[in-house]
Specification:
Elements lengths: L15 H18 L3 H7 L6 H8 L16 H14 L1 H21 L2 H12 L5 E4 L15 E5 L2 E12 L6 E8 L2 E8 L5 E5 L11 E12 L11 H35 L1 E2 L2 E2 L4 H29 L5 H26 L10 H13 L4 H13 L10
Parallel strand pairs: 1-4
Antiparallel strand pairs: 2-3, 3-7, 4-5, 6-7, 8-9
Helix pairs in contact: 1-4, 4-5, 4-7, 5-6, 5-7, 7-8, 7-9, 7-10, 8-9, 9-10, 9-11
Amino acid sequence: MPSATDFLDIDSLLSDEEKLLRETVRKFTEDQILPDVAEWWEQGTFPHELSKEMGAMGLLGMHLEGYGCAGTSAVAYGLACLELEAGDSGTRSFVSVQGSLAMFPIWKFGSEEQKEQWLPQMAAGEVIGCFGLTEPDSGSDPASMRTNARRDGSDWVLNGTKMWITNGNVADIAVIWARTDGGVRGFIVPTDSPGFKANEIHRKASLRASITSELVLEDVRLPDDFVLPGVSSMRGPLSCLSEARYGILWGVMGAARACYESALEYAKSRQQFNSPIAGFQLTQQKLVDMMVAVSRGTLLALHLGRLKDEHRLSPEQVSFGKLDNVRNALEVARTARSILGANGITLEYPVIRHMTNLETVYTYEGTNEIHTLILGQAITGIPSFHASKG
């Protein structure tokens, strides 16, 4: 009889090493995240002192080679993201931003001196990073950014505003993308630089166990050795987004799994009309739909992970995973909420927390609409990002 929590025996597709890593991260989540995450979520905070423990486990920049990074496979990184987001999207988001958005551009486009200076400290969780691309008026169209950097002698002077920046108020460095006369460049900006300010965004109803900020740069002056030398185009930030999206397409299946398992356990114990509601046909349909969605999404993530490990994964295939897995995870969470009834809106259960978090994940790192257009262009060869002019 297939297992209710691994109906397709996906475990059999994993190596012993991959299973061990997954179980290690699952135990960390169960011991360090789940007991307190509802309180963090309600208070709108996240204990970033956990960063050093995550660093000691090798979770930060774990898929990068050298410089104190663990150098794991893409699948291993994906499994870690899945288990972290089974705890909370904010936990996975912290690891994603640190590794894929802050460390990756330094690792990919930085000088040898920059890599040696920053990456070992970031891998250890001693230095926290953030990623500044999105702006108040530039979200889905990042190429229209207004943040700029100009030469002043041997220095660079940065001005602009970035919005919706995870870890902004707790970061030690920010990787800021800005327009220059020579194209879009990335800058490593210490957050104690004169003219740099981070304003925390409050009153969020989603992703509350995560710090989100506005970054303001007013005549921030940097020496030339703080610019990433390896890229001078939108290829830089877009490649970082593809890395982050890969972690997301795994992570959301952790949130979906947590919602499904919570609903399944609840339905088998909740009595109505002298029977467990799991015995009702409509409830069983919901449970089956959730199980199928979680199984299918996890298989998709694993397939894309194997492609990535073989260096055959395209950004468009990442968009496929981000598009489909996030929307299915959100539907699983909503369905689980309906099974729990009134209990589904309390933080005594994880479902409403995951459901509201996934509303943010549905939008960030490329909206559902943007990924649809990426796939549309991939299959037709015709870009349709700009509105037609009548």
